[in-house]
Amino acid sequence: MKKSFLIFVYLLSFPLFSEQIHFRLTNNQDKYEFIKNSEFYFDTQKDDISYYRDNYTFRETSLDMTINGNRKSVLINDIELYENNVVFPDSIKDSVWTLKNYLDDIRYNKNTLFINEPFWKKTWTQISVADYDEQGRDYFAPVTLKVFNVCLCFDPNLVFDTTNVIFKSIKKENASYLIEGYVVDNYDTGYPFIYEYFPYKSKVIYELVLDGDYLYFCHHDKILLTFVRTNEEMQYEITNYYTNNKCDKSKFTWPRHADGTCDYENRKTLVAPSSSATNVTVSKVMSVRENLKLRSAEATSSNVLKIMSAGTKVKILELGKAETIDGIKSNWVKVEIISGSDRYGNKLKSGMTGWCYGGYLE
């Protein structure tokens, strides 16, 4: 079973004042003669930075940045924060993350592209001949995310320029990662969430949650963005789905949560909406029987707000649709948390509401 990690992120957006970020070389010192004593500084206000990747492997990904007054290129994997010994686990760094809503569309034969990324509707018929690939497809590509030890990069496969967040510090506390960073590069990508959550020349602090093959961007207990682990084959099929309305679903490795569950498996069967097969009733106080996801809606495909640990007390506010999940007949219920903790032992906020499956309450 894969481990889960929590990265606390509190999103701030205020003007960026000049600050020095201290880096050091970790590999190939002889390659960088322009870096003295294997260390250098980056000025968040005066210097600029660009991100270049070689191909899907990201093994030769580099930062083109100002070092000692000169424009130089440094491989991301050759540097780290000078005053920081904390690094991300390979399960985060070695993955390419893609927005979850693409997989939702493909799995359930929907198309919400123009809803979630409305700028495509305007530009779809305005793409020039130069923007077609060798197979003649419109040069659409899904949003991808890469996380390194010194930065994170939103990279829509070079269809548009990238958005880069350079880290100032990474601190680990128990199962948590506290990350402070600066948005040093943000081109006109057209993606609404990038401007909303990552304003150019701003200071940000993130909360990330790694849950198996899922990576959540959070702010004050609210999930802002949900990414899933993908590979090159899946990226190709996602692009093919939206540009040609064709997709080979057999090429997908559907993501799983850390507890082994998968949102995309046919594990449930709808039953009559009026049937309440368990003892869940409105206003009743019940306890969580085992780790249970608190969701934004009454569906396993909805966003996960929290994972409630066994023993958490909830009050039922509303009965939802009845379903059979894993052989258990019950209703989805809207609940209010009374007391308890999440799966990491952190105290849950009393009064928080959401949906969960009533079959796992007692």
**Number of E-state strands:** 22
Give the DSSP E fraction (strand runs of 2 or more residues).
Answer: 35-45%
- Spans of 5+ residues with little confidence (pLDDT < 50)? 1-16, 125-138, 267-277
Order of helices and strands: EEEEEEEHEHHHEEEEHEEEHEEEEEEE
Give the helix proportion (percent range): 10-25%
Number of domains: 2
Whole-number mean pLDDT = 76
Please summarize the sheet with the most strands: 9 strands, mixed
Radius of gyration: 22 Å
Taken from the alpha-carbon principal axes, the silhouette is globular
Distance between the termini: 26 Å
- The helix-and-strand class reads mainly beta
- The number of distinct helices, counting runs of at least 4 residues, comes to 6
Structural account:
By secondary structure, the protein is mainly beta. The chain folds into two domains: 4-98 and 139-229, no CATH class; 268-360, no CATH class. 11% of the residues lie in helices and 38% in strands. It contains six helices and 22 strands. Strands 1, 8, 9, 10, 11, 12, 13, 14 and 15 form a nine-stranded mixed sheet that branches. Strands 16, 17, 20, 21 and 22 form a five-stranded antiparallel sheet that branches. It has a three-stranded antiparallel sheet with strand order 3-2-7, with no helix packed on it. Strand 11 (163-173) and strand 12 (176-186) form a beta hairpin. Residues 1-16, 125-138 and 267-277 have low confidence and may be disordered.
